[in-house]
Design brief:
The chain is of the alpha/beta class. 41% of the residues lie in helices and 15% in strands. The protein folds into 2 domains: 205 residues, Rossmann fold; 79 residues, Rossmann fold (3-Layer(aba) Sandwich).
Length: 329
């Protein structure tokens, strides 16, 4: 494997399933749609960050760290999986979350508590400032913290998605399936950067097209290209990337990060009612809404084969009950 020389600790169930969605495809009038089920990675509810944490946590242990410190939003899937990874490995975990404590602790936030993480709210400070303070407190207490950035999106965590591309390539080869495009959510850039670097190393030819969750296209392409180059270097590859190598659709930003609108709600309901699959309100709901629109506008042809990468996060649905129910409530 292209990541064999790098430290890695098993945390998930891999390979994750690759399944066809015939009812959704029929409702949309084509194309043929398949789904890569990273909601089934198994770590405290699953999700794509498990792939990254296998490498990030391994690096932490290699350095002799005893505490994982990371940051995210109130309903961060990454934070939930980091807390679970720490519990699995016998490490302490500190999560720095944006803003102030909510009135109701539900969804991922509830799971963070159950998983034993210490939760710090940034209040009026930035998450980065609060995280720096948390790191200093841990050091002052005699602990050895390891900082994992937002989404584990650095050259350590992102190699998890280079490995994921190798996993996918093997599944496609075994099944004879040849998708035209791979569609997925992209926010903190690491998932896409790992995919891009891994695809280049493997000669993977389907188009990797991100649905931008919260970043304008120019910003996303620049950041992903820079990180993909660092991932390639960590893999020992003599390969750099430029923004023109990065494909994304940034017309689905809606009301902003974590704000669920009608397109996301409709996409979540459609996936659930046609295939029994739960998407999440922040990432996969928005990415599926983008896919549905691209099909409806004819940008994706009816005769294509599409692979949609489910990055997990359905635990956050419970924090969006009112928005999801709408007039049904």
């Amino acid at each position: 494997m292209i990541t064999d020389r790098l430290p890695r600790i098993p945390l998930g169930f891999f390979p994750t399933p690759l399944e066809e969605l015939p009812h959704l495809s029929r409702v949309l009038g084509g194309p043929r749609i398949f789904m890569k089920r990273d909601d089934q990675t198994g770590l405290a509810g699953g999700g794509n960050k498990t792939r990254k944490l296998e490498f990030s946590a391994a690096e932490a242990l290699r350095r002799g760290s005893d505490t994982l410190v990371t940051l995210g939003g109130l309903q961060s899937n990454h934070c939930r999986q980091t807390a679970a990874a720490a519990a699995r490995l016998g490490l302490r975990c500190v999560l720095v979350l944006r803003g102030r404590p909510p009135e109701s602790w539900n969804g991922n936030l509830l799971l963070d508590r159950l998983l034993g993480a210490e939760i710090v709210f940034s209040g009026s400070r930035t998450r980065e400032e609060a995280a720096e303070e948390a790191l200093e407190r841990e050091k002052s207490a005699g602990r050895r913290p390891f900082f994992i950035p937002l989404g584990a999106s650095d050259e350590y965590g992102s190699v998890g998605f280079a490995a994921a591309m190798e996993e996918l390539a093997a599944q496609l080869s075994a099944s004879g399936l040849a998708p035209d495009r791979v569609i997925f959510a992209s926010s903190s850039f690491g998932t896409q950067a790992g995919m891009v670097a891994g695809a280049k190393a493997l000669g993977f030819t389907p188009r990797l097209e991100a649905i931008a969750i919260d970043s304008p296209g120019d910003e996303l392409r620049e950041a992903v290209a820079e990180l993909a180059s660092r991932v390639a270097a960590r893999l020992g590859l003599d390969q750099g990337f430029s923004p023109r190598d990065i494909l994304c659709h940034d017309g689905y930003l809606g009301g902003g990060y974590g704000i669920m609108g009608e397109p996301e709600r409709e996409a979540i309901e459609l996936a659930a009612s046609t295939e029994g699959i739960l998407l999440d309100p922040v990432y996969t709901g928005r990415a599926m809404a983008g896919l549905i629109d691209l099909i409806g506008r004819g940008e994706i042809r009816k005769d294509e084969t599409i692979l949609f990468w489910h990055t997990g996060g359905s635990a956050a649905l419970f924090a969006y009950a009112e928005e999801l129910m709408g007039e049904k409530a």
